[in-house]
Write a structure and sequence with these properties.
The protein is of the alpha+beta class. It is built from one helix and three strands. The protein has a three-stranded antiparallel β-sheet with strand order 1-2-3, covered by helices on one side.
Length: about 130
């Protein structure tokens, strides 16, 4: 009696063509995902600049209101906010005053104080505060 041996099957892995096809499909899927991450990163940086500018505008308006409160709400208005720290050197802020009339004013006119914060040459935040003498 002769013994027949079964041939050993060595095809337990992927062929080279299957691996290449998988690489191509994965790269086609990865390109849009990479673009999404890039856009999310730039959007995050812009949002961070806007938030920082808003906080700097808020700090300036609070400084203005504190100065007026200490002086009994009748002080002459400051022409600018205090200087920004060195860590905010790319930001600039301006304080503008204008008169306006409104029914919300206790007198015939009020003063509108606007704080404008810019960075990279673009306005990032604008905050308006209505001031009235009591």
């Amino acid at each position: 009696m002769s013994v027949r041996l079964k041939p050993i099957n060595h095809s337990t892995g992927f062929s080279l063509i299957e691996v290449v096809i998988i690489i191509i499909v994965m790269s086609i899927i990865a390109v849009p995902l990479t673009l999404q991450f890039s856009q999310a990163s730039s959007s995050w940086q812009l949002n961070e600049r806007v938030q920082t500018a808003s906080q700097l505008a808020q700090a300036c308006s609070e400084e203005l209101l504190l100065t007026r409160r200490i002086s009994g709400h009748t002080a002459a208005l400051a022409s600018s906010c205090s200087a920004l720290p060195a860590s905010f050197s790319s930001y600039s802020r301006a304080l503008n005053f204008s008169s306006f009339s409104s029914t919300a004013c206790p007198d015939t006119s009020c003063t509108l104080a606007e704080v404008v914060v810019t960075t990279d040459g673009n306005e990032r935040a604008r905050l308006a505060v209505m001031l009235a003498d009591y």
